[in-house]
Automatic annotation (TrEMBL):
GO biological process: lipid A biosynthetic process
Subcellular location: Cytoplasm
Biological role stated in the UniProt entry: Involved in the biosynthesis of lipid A, a phosphorylated glycolipid that anchors the lipopolysaccharide to the outer membrane of the cell.
Identification of the protein by name: Acyl-[acyl-carrier-protein]--UDP-N-acetylglucosamine O-acyltransferase
Reaction catalysed by this enzyme: a (3R)-hydroxyacyl-[ACP] + UDP-N-acetyl-alpha-D-glucosamine = a UDP-3-O-[(3R)-3-hydroxyacyl]-N-acetyl-alpha-D-glucosamine + holo-[ACP]
Family: Belongs to the transferase hexapeptide repeat family. LpxA subfamily.
Listed GO CC annotations: cytoplasm; membrane
Record domain UDP N-acetylglucosamine O-acyltransferase C-terminal: where: 176-256
GO MF term list: acyl-[acyl-carrier-protein]-UDP-N-acetylglucosamine O-acyltransferase activity
InterPro entries: Acetyltransf_C, Acetyltransf_C_sf, Lipid_A_LpxA, Trimer_LpxA-like_sf
Principal subcellular localisation of the protein: cytoplasm
Gene designation: lpxA
A Pfam family reported for this protein in Swiss-Prot or TrEMBL: Acetyltransf_11
Pathway: Glycolipid biosynthesis; lipid IV(A) biosynthesis; lipid IV(A) from (3R)-3-hydroxytetradecanoyl-[acyl-carrier-protein] and UDP-N-acetyl-alpha-D-glucosamine: step 1/6
Source organism of the structure: Bradyrhizobium erythrophlei
Amino acid sequence: MTTIDPTARVEDGAVIGAGAAIGPYCVIGRDVTIGANCKLISHVHVMGQTAIGAGCTVYPFASLGGAPQSLAYRGEPTKLQIGEGCTIRESVTMSTGTVGGGGITRVGDRGYFMNCSHVGHDCQVGNDVIFATSATLGGHCEIGDFVFIGGLSAVHQFTRIGPQAMIGGVCGVRGDVIPYGLVNGQYARLEGLNIVGMKRRKFTRERLAVVRSFYQKLFEAPGVFSERLDAVRSLAATDPAVAAILSFIDSGTHRPLCLPSGRTGENG
């Protein structure tokens, strides 16, 4: 049974799914779709062309579907799409897209967004991510599945973070982070592989050894990065994770690659 608190304001045209609960003082715009069995606890503002998937829980003072924080935005109708089963904690903000960025911000399923985290316009966020307190994405970022972003970390616009990467706390991420990468530092540097996360995804010891060996040859061996990259391409067939890392590197366009400390300037 759908329940809407009498203090909530739900504009005509909004679609509220079966079993949803809209708590006190929530404001739901006319172009919003709230999925089945969602729970908006109280004081939640959902606006714009925003769709929230089934089974999400949204905590007080979250603001979803606000206009993109872009000087190029001129009020065009753009969208925010949030997947199923997400937990969106207090004061989280997520913006709609911009025409220049494709017109839609997407957030996948089962994400956990801790208080004050932010998803900027035109970001594409995967499934099963965790954003710790005040983790922030600039516009146009691409975040893979199972990514963890530590508290107070900020990701530069147009940056990509590959699947299963882990970003430490208080990091300024200015370069693309490879899949399975582990990043730390005020100005984020690649420290190795997210071994804990890989074990949680059921990587065997044999697979871990293969990927570690590849990582060492690519990022820790002497010589110029481009030459090392060419040298390890033949290893793509040794493990799907190796192939994913190489494909990720090859597809980069906007931002340099996040490299280990002491490897500055090797990109290209």
